[in-house]
Amino acid sequence: MRRAAPLVAAALLAMALVGALALGPLRLPVGDVLGALGQLAGLSLQADPQALAVVGSLRLPRALLAALAGAVFGLAGAMTQGLFRNPLADPGVLGIAGGASLGAVSAIFFGVASLSVWALPATGFVGGLAAALLVSRIARSDGRTPVATLLLAGIAVNALAMSLTGILVYASDDRQLRDISLWLMGSVGGATPLRIWILVPFAALLLAGLPFFARGLDALMLGEREAVHLGIGIETLKAGVIGCVALAVGAVVSCVGPIGFVGLVVPHIARMILGPGHRLLLPVSALASAALLVAADTFARLAVAPAELPVGLVTAAIGAPFFAAMVARSKRRLAL
């Protein structure tokens, strides 16, 4: 069962992608979707011209961006939970989402976002990265970064960023307030091939570190002292996890907004099913989170058609009850 988990997660992602490409105001047969994908891939397949236009120009970039964002959120969430040794942690505890939100909201408030199509993602990325660097700087002492101090620093920086964001929201006019609200709800509606290609290197950065991170996080589950005895460079591991998560999550949040709960719910469920071993947990979390966000975006497009819901509202509706159930379960265990 455990060995088959990556294949099951990959199958779920494949089904979610096909569903995202087939469903919409114009419903396409699966055969037409596969034919369009084959022709886009350069295979000698004949595709329906209408299906080719809908899939290639509209639905495929959006589905790929959702899958890429979901994979980064899930992988970063699993790594953050392993770093803090807390299954309720997510990348938000490092202040990345709060910093990215402050950067993007500042760009809208001060009119920078209107200067270029890339101004909003750029300011969001810089804000998220700056927040992560500040958290790391505050937590670091005598060449070490204690995990408990890192958590407290992340909470403080995130609270400060959200406070400043709230001040800007309060001072915004009606047009700015609408733009800010829509961005903070999260959406993959602005997907373009160029934006996807820009995010690919950041996702690849996380994937490239999987072997090192998996071994180190497994050892860290035993405690920092035990991990050192096993030959793990603890400070190098912490710096690698924080740096890669900050870069990848900051880049994704800057493009799709602060979509919540994906990096919390899926890694937690995967940990409950697979156990704490990160060699399986990390890739399964990435694949299953990608499937979840693609499916959530498909639902967001269909639920109130011809309008669409921000996908962040859908993931919050899924994640909030799950989080409440986890809290209730923890209370029952403590009572016992």
Question: Tags for this entry?
Answer:
336 residues; mainly alpha; ABC transporter involved in vitamin B12 uptake, BtuC; 76% helix
What's the helix and strand layout?
Elements: H1 5-22, H2 30-40, H3 49-84, H4 96-109, H5 119-139, H6 147-171, H7 174-185, H8 193-208, H9 210-220, H10 224-229, H11 234-256, H12 262-274, H13 278-303, H14 311-335
Helix pairs in contact: 1-3, 1-13, 2-3, 3-8, 3-11, 3-12, 3-13, 4-5, 4-6, 4-7, 4-11, 5-6, 5-11, 8-11, 9-11, 9-13, 12-13
Number of domains: 1
Provide the β-strand percentage band: under 5%
Helical amount: over 70%
Q: What's the CATH architecture?
A: Orthogonal Bundle
CATH superfamily: ABC transporter involved in vitamin B12 uptake, BtuC
Describe the global form. Answer: globular
Mean pLDDT, as a whole number?
87
